[in-house]
Amino acid sequence: MHQKNGFTCMLLGEIFELVQLLFVVGFTVFLANCVDYDILFANKFVNHTDSSKVTLPDAFIPVDVCNTRIRDNAFVVFLLIISGVFWLHRLVKFIYNVCCYWEIRSFYINALKMTMSELPYASWQEVQARIVEIQKEHQICIHKKELTELDIYHRILRFKNYMVAMVNKSLLPVRFQLPILGDCVFYTRGLKYNFELIFFWGPGSLFENEWSLKAEYKRGGNRHELADRLASRILWIGIANLLLCPVILVWQILYAFFSYTEVIKREPGSLGARCWSLYGRCYLRHFNELDHELMSRLSKGYKAASKYMNCFLSPLLTVVAKNVAFFAGSLLAVLIALTIYDEDVLTVEHVLTSITLLGVCVTVCRSFIPDKHMVFCPEQLLRVILAHIHYMPDHWQGNAHRYETRDQFSQLFQYKAVFILEELLSPVVTPIILIFCLRRKSLEIIDFFRNFTVEVVGAGDTCSFAQMDIRQHGHPAWMSEGKTEASIYQQAEDGKTELSLMHFAITNPQWQPSQETTHFISQLKERVHREATGAATDTHPHSLSESEPRSLIANFLVGPSTLASVHFGRDISLVNHAAAGLSDGASALRSLSPVSTSLHLKGSLSAAHRAASHTPGMSKAMADSGTDARTVSSGSSAWEGQLTSLVLSEYASTEMSIHAVYIHELHKQQSRGELPRHTWHRQESDESSDSIPDEVRSRNFPRSHTFPTTAPSPSAIPTSASVTSSTIAGQEGASSQGSSQRGYSGPSTGGKVVRSAHVPMGGWAEESQPAPQQHGPLPEESSEDEMPPHIHKVNALCA
After folding, report:
1. Which residues contact 9 (CB under 8 A, 6 or more apart)?
2. Do 410 and 306 meet the contact criterion of CB atoms below 8 Å apart?
3. 414 by DSSP, 3-state: which?
4. Selection from 393, 380, 185, 195 nearest residue 284 by Cα
5. 272 alpha-carbon distance from chain centroid
6. pLDDT digits 0-9 by tens, 399-443
7. Ordered DSSP codes for 214-253
8. What angle, rounded to 10 degrees, do the helices at 74-106 and 245-266 form?
9. pLDDT for 660-674, tens place per residue?
10. pTM of the full predicted structure?
């Protein structure tokens, strides 16, 4: 409700969705059956007694004839029935949603003491702080005394964190190796809807409600039976999609036609514009990142991303576009001149159509002609992009000028026309992916939900990756070496755990993580701060070393002139805090301690307010950065609150950008000579413990409080004092946080449940049951990592 501007806006949005559905269906049926196009196109003569002028009602077929034509058309009747059933379903959902919205409205007004008129100007941090305080006073969550910021995020982003984790581990079949097109990504709203229907909320899904995974999926003894059941359900849903394909396809075409035709006529070049793809939003999303936080971050990187993609315009295509634009523009100029001289020229057949098509042709050609003032600097632009999107494969850096890098980046940042085309093809392609690709991964999906689900008190079952536990899901190559005990299967790829942890800590400075996590954050911040301030004194402002992270940090912190040298000057969102008076390099790296943070921010904000009063371009710079004005607490007035919001948001955004670039630079140095394991080289999801080497299987990893644990008897598993003590320490750490997790103990009868190294994916098995037999030998996981990218096993259809 906060991001949708209150109850009234949400209610009107739901009502107009219902009306829009009726309009599209009714208007389409009317156009297909109740219009005489021969009269409309002047192919048929109409007798008039009073006037010879043809009016629009003359082209309308009488009502009785129209009804007869509709009843005699079986396909139209079928579409109307399907549309009616769908509309009734939406109506029931609308009534349910309105009731939920009213309860949320009452909660905001009565509990949080916020009226609907104040809500659009309040920040999310203010709303979140009030929820935390209300929990202390009224115990709105009965399972724990205090709620943390992480608990709130877990409740909101439960299913989205699972989706981000599955994309990160390459579990979802969204990447395909096609014969002619090569490596492609296909991830649409329709496919995403089916994934969520199967996993989370549909009939027979893995979750029994919005907060709890079904108990049978928490045990590993019947994993094959559950996988067969899931595969059967995926098959039936795929068949249902196949049967409804004609109806959905017609709807997609009509909706796209009504939505984009006017936009294309008004701005023909809009199809040549780019947007962040649905796959890109999921791949670039941090764990525990809200929708408005993600879109604000990606919006800041839009300009740099567009400039980077425009660097690759074909010179040959540019020459052709210039000449085609000249010829089309010449014809258009003559027609416009004739029209100005005598407006009767427009009455000539196809003149108006020719003017329109020639205008579209000229506009499209102009989009392929680069700006003559543009400088080709892909490497520096790619670094600006990295500062905002935070994720980038290792092999992109240093190869920004190559078309292979450009093609891979285009999978994240695609043309709007490609987005529309994929959505139109979605009804046809989605059933194929469900039946032939997703169904084969049913066992991996079952094991994923079992192994990576933890029960958090006060939040329910959540994805363990969303706990952002370095010890359980950290990657040694991403500053977690010596701090993580995760196997390759348990590691989050591309530094997702480390970067997500830093983003959440910077976005929520009042959050108090565990002692181990706090140590990791403070150590990283101290390292960045030390190297940044040290580099600022001995680094030339215009240098940008490939081998030293400190030189890049210095370029962030020295000042706007330095930032301009690496093309940050055009990206206002990274330097506007410096224009606000935050010129000291150390001030850009605030401590995450709640006390020092609050004191430091007070001084920074006062400096920002003073600079804003003396800097005319300050407000414009912030407005151009794409930052949401509703991000932090309000001041004595709406304008002061928005200004404070902008300053704090830009402050945190710049701080996260510095840390993201630094982590990537340090990772690049540490991983030189090692084979990459990013998503462009992983053709399949990481194998389960079926493929883990024997020496890894034999290890007993101590389990922290953020991963499912049990307390097996000493006779079941030989434990050491260190393992026992680490388990106890993890449990004590969980209780100190107030957000302890409970491991699944399985059924109360039928033997004790222990963690078995012989169960695929390290699943749960019962002592009385032998480990299930493997169907066949699989390549070891280490051998997968040792293979160079070009000899990886590639499937012809599914990745």
Report:
1. none
2. no
3. strand
4. 393
5. 22
6. 999 989 999 999 999 999 899 999 999 999 999 999 999 999 999
7. -GGGG-STTHHHHHHHHHHHHHHHHHHHHHTHHHHHHHHH
8. 70
9. 988 988 888 877 655
10. 0.73
